[in-house]
Specification:
478 residues; alpha/beta; Aldehyde Dehydrogenase, Chain A, domain 1; 2 domains; seven-stranded mixed β-sheet; 34% helix; 21% strand
């Protein structure tokens, strides 16, 4: 099929820009999409007044928006939807996303199902985020919770989102904003315009006003305009990218997860019982998520665990995109593969780290298939948390295995987005619960890569978009 031209969406109006970017198929010079680019001046004008966008959502009951989300989920998963100047079937979406992201087909389908689930379970998600608040409060601003009067008001007229290209499922984080009646301003990742655009079209087909959606492919300067001018913003990137916004209360940063897996003293001698959980935590979604385990800390058996993980992950190699066994994703930008491979190699030159996977696979970490760059899963045995590779995270299945006594296991672990702890020890569970470095804690055999959207693992969107006020309403009737 010819490459579609994907327009800018200016809150109800499609706009074709003279400034156009071509998105190419990985490993070739084939154009997969023409993308209209928004310049910073256009963004600044459009973001000056979003009152109409907010009012379009406020006019619809929250219950109706929930029902629209359910319909949108089915449209997203099953229907042909507009993709610029063409219609896009689910299979078109799959092939286009693979062409620019490197994700194999079965991982794309998995992510589609994840997003479909969030669409269809939006009521449970909203209830979880708002801690059971009645939907009526989003309509009237006033209600009751636990027998006490409550009032909430939005702190912004828009949610700006600067998206990455590494995983379609990150789009789940902005979706509840529509039910919360806050319009979105989406800057898609350079290689991944497909998912946010398709989600918008599904919402619109389900009846959500098109005025609620801004879709602005743009430059780094344009991203800056979104960040400066939206009242609330999500930014995705590595630690260096997001560090500059860490003190800005308007900006919710989604950087490196530094997600960890612990096994306690009471369970470590049965570590083989949890090997499947460890493998899934490290490798799910090709290791591309901030919720993939990148550090595994145990009190004993670190060498044996590292070897067993390396052996289990060794078969995870590049396969044709449509192979049902394909689990490893290529890199949209070959420079990323080069940088990551170099960072791991340089780190291994420092004493105190050993590439256990290299001993198993007997081949290079970086390989090519069909013009795409891949990095083979890598398990590194690291002597201490002070090593340069300790607590590192990369966009492929990579994990360090570290051994330290249980009484020291939680010392200096640093920020941890998700942690799974295998233990029944009540005292150690108490220590885990008391550790403020851990954002989301799984106690027991639960992969770090599995989350429930009604329990946010990184910020609470409702609390980010709304504030509670004290209220008293006095009946003035005679």
């Amino acid at each position: 099929m010819p490459a579609p031209h994907i327009p800018i969406l200016r809150f109800g109006k499609e706009y074709l820009s003279l400034d156009e970017n071509e998105v190419m198929r990985l490993g070739s010079d084939e154009t997969v999409a023409h993308i209209s680019m928004a310049n910073p001046g256009l963004l600044k004008r459009d973001l000056q007044n979003l009152r109409a966008a907010r009012q379009a959502l406020r006019a619809i009951p929250a219950r109706s928006l929930i029902e629209m989300a359910k319909k949108a989920g089915d449209y997203f998963l099953n229907d042909s939807l507009p993709c610029g100047d063409q219609m896009q079937s689910p299979e078109d979406y799959l092939h286009q996303l693979h062409a620019t992201s490197g994700l194999p087909h079965n991982l794309i389908r998995m992510n589609m199902k994840k997003l479909h689930q969030l669409f269809t379970e939006m009521e449970e998600v909203v209830s979880g985020l708002s801690r059971g608040l009645s939907l009526d409060v989003f309509d009237t601003g006033i209600g009751e919770q636990g027998g006490a009067p409550v009032s909430y008001s939005a702190v912004t007229d828009s949610l700006g989102v600067v998206l990455p290209s590494n995983s379609p499922a990150v789009n789940a984080l902005w979706m509840p904003s529509i039910v919360f009646k806050v319009p979105v301003v989406l800057k898609p990742g350079r290689e991944e315009p497909w998912t946010p655009y398709r989600m918008i079209q599904a919402f619109i087909k389900a009846g959500v006003p098109r005025e609620a959606f801004g879709f602005y492919p743009t430059s780094h300067e344009g991203s800056g305009a979104i960040i400066r001018r939206c009242g609330r913003v999500m930014v995705f990137g590595d630690d260096k990218t997001v560090a500059q916004y860490s003190t800005d209360a308007r900006v919710e940063v989604h950087g490196t997860g530094h997600t960890k897996f612990f096994i306690g003293e009471d369970k470590i001698d049965q570590w083989e019982d949890y090997l499947d959980i460890m493998v899934e935590s490290i490798s799910a979604n090709s290791g591309r998520s901030c919720i993939n385990t990148s550090t595994l800390i145990v009190p004993r058996h670190a060498d044996a665990i590292a070897k067993a993980l390396a052996e289990r992950l060794a078969p995870m190699k590049p396969l044709p995109a449509d192979d049902v066994e394909a689990k490893l994703a290529g890199f949209a930008n070959p420079a990323f593969a080069d940088y990551i491979d170099g960072a791991v190699t340089d780190g291994l030159e420092e004493p105190g780290a050993r590439d256990v996977s290299a001993e198993v696979r007997g081949a290079d970490r970086r390989v090519q298939l069909d013009g795409m760059e891949y990095l083979i899963p890598t398990i590194v045995r690291v002597d201490s948390m002070d090593h340069v590779l300790a607590n590192r995270e990369f966009l492929f299945p990579f994990c360090q295995v570290i051994e330290r006594p249980q009484e020291e296991l939680l010392d200096d672990i640093g920020y941890t987005l998700v942690a799974t702890a295998i233990t029944d020890d009540p005292d150690w569970i108490s220590d885990l619960l008391d550790n403020a470095d851990i954002e989301r804690l799984n106690i027991g055999p639960h992969p770090t890569s599995r989350i429930e959207w009604n329990q946010p693992h990184e910020g609470n969107l409702f609390e980010f978009l709304y504030k509670r006020r004290a209220i008293r309403v006095v009946n003035q009737a005679a």
